[in-house]
What does this fold into?
Amino acid sequence: MTELTVENVDLHYGAAQALRRVSITARPEKITAVMGRNGVGKSSLLRAITGVHPISGGTISIAGTELKRSAPYARARMGLGYVPQGREIFPLLTVRENLYTGYAPLKLSERAIPETIFTLFPVLKSMLGRRGGDLSGGQQQQLAIGRALVTRPKVLVLDEPTEGIQPSIIKDIGRALQFLRDEMGMTILLVEQYLDFCRELADDIYVMDRGEIMHSGVAADLDDPDVKRHLMV
It folds into this structure.
């Protein structure tokens, strides 16, 4: 069981401060949702966690090991899987080749596509030879999640996986995340704006505004008027 801990993290882009003493805990075998309006710092938090952008202060730890300034590839080797906003698959590579890119942090003996990916997303198996750019947006999102799962993550981090996705595939993604939590014991951190998706899936929630955590609690808190105030556009 692997816990992800963010403590008092600050992050700057030049003189602009994007995160202010942010603290969250993604508990083992739980889905933790970070919510908030556009531009409040959610993606900056994930850039900090994945090592894409250095933090200015505070600590980030996986299973009690502080990440310090370790590179993104080193974090992947520690068990951190990342599904970026916008999917960022390789459009000219086939589905199979996109999945192969998840081999990068693995030892040679571990380089195989887990059958679980095709159990969760059967459409990928039928499209292994098709170019990623020819897939629908929802299929590309499934591919992006599959690619992250190839890395054998202990902690899976997803940035707005429902964005621009048709309802049927949102349900498929929701069922996949529930399976990863309940059957595989994965720790999942989800940045999301879709209220109903988080209400249905999340065990814990954090609500951000202006680079700070304004509320933390359970998913039922999403019906609290004070919490909703920070989510309204």
Summary: Strands lie at 4-13, 16-26, 31-35, 57-62, 65-66, 80-83, 155-159, 187-191, 204-209, 212-218. The domain at 30-50+71-229 is CATH 3.40.50.300 (Rossmann fold). The two ends are 37 Å apart (CA to CA). The first strand starts at residue 4 and ends at 13.
